[in-house]
Amino acid sequence: MLETWLWRAPRQVALCMLVSALCVAPFAACSDDSGPSPTDAGAADGQLDKDPGADGPATRDDSRPDAPATRDGGSDAGPKLPTGLKANTWNVLYPGGDTICSRGDKYMFAVNPGTVNKLVVDFEGGGACWTDASCSAAGALFKERAEDSLKYIQQGYAEGIYDRKNPNNPFKDWYHVFVPYCTGDIHWGDAVKSYGSGAQAFSINHKGAVNVRAVLDWIKKNFGGPEKIFVTGCSAGSYGSLLWTHHLIKQYPQAKVYQFGDSGAGVITSNFLSQSFPNWNALGAAPDWIPSLDPKQVDLLTKDVAYIYAESAKNQPGHTFSQYNTLEDSVQVTYFQVMGGGTAQQWSQGMVSSIDTIMSDAPSFRAYLAEGKQHCIIPFKEFYTTQVKGKKLVDWLADMVDDQPVQSQRCTACVPTTGP
What we know:
Blueprint: H1 2-6, E1 39-40, E2 91-94, E3 109-112, E4 118-123, H2 132-135, H3 147-154, E5 175-179, E6 191-195, E7 202-206, H4 208-222, E8 228-234, H5 236-251, E9 256-262, H6 272-280, H7 305-315, E10 320-326, H8 330-338, H9 344-361, E11 366-370, E12 387-388, E13 391-392, H10 393-401, E14 409-410
Parallel strand pairs: 1-2, 4-5, 4-8, 8-9, 9-10, 10-11, 11-14
Antiparallel strand pairs: 2-3, 3-5, 6-7, 12-13
Helix pairs in contact: 7-9
């Protein structure tokens, strides 16, 4: 079901140019109106409440135990963790404030409590828009609402890292914060942009950075000091994970942080950043306390994803930055071709070359390159079966977050080539 939906977007993008690797998110496929009631993230310390727009008093379901949690307040109190969350379920929270989705819908996020002081921060993918054509396509090219994917994971359709009952899931006991995507700006934007003209004019809230900051504020309020943080995202969410990892490292300097970009190689046309970033006002998400990533000191519009990864890894010693890609990722290749970027082989060459550049500039960077055409791995059952030269991806990641030595893995065919 997820794979069917992933293939839908490329057939609908023929009229406009889109960035390779920014497929509309897999979670937006199948949903209905069921699922746990949302809660208000503005409530003190994560207490359950109702949607801010709902009438009537807040309610609690005492038939289900809250997740184990401890609070600061004594020498043996332990680290501060969220309270008021229902265990073994996705608690949906409304941060309110200035958060908003692209066309005005409410923003929300979800938290599944864990039993250890470790945290997954997971950025959803879901396309992008930056032109009249790409932003007017009514959901075909980018994800417009947060609630659809939340219903999807609530109902258990997502697999991979979302399958918390799988004994092989390295993150089954971790707290998991899911950051939905509905702003068309790869989680980096802070702008309201007008598109079209006359009777066809409309506005898009490119407020991804505003939404993420609200989620990070909730995390800061409710987690005193996670031991480890795994920051990830599929497709467009991969890019969200890249920049916002720096903010989490700054927020929790004592934590060990692991970034894992899933299917976001950043093989794009040369003019994409100069076209999209001004519309999104995206540079505000950059970690400006790092000189080589400070937009006031470096023209990031002239850089590429390889540069950002390399500078990220070099400037965050003790933490891990990494990527996963398949050699012929069908979605990344399709968008690359729609952009006029050339053949599938040229995309593959660009992806491998980008990985090699990062590894050369930042030896601590790690990559896992697999054969095939699958786009995204973290929400699928293949998360547990994919392997390269005998090393399963799930075991590779388990070793990484267990601080065991891990080396980059690449398939036999995943080597630089020349020719058309």
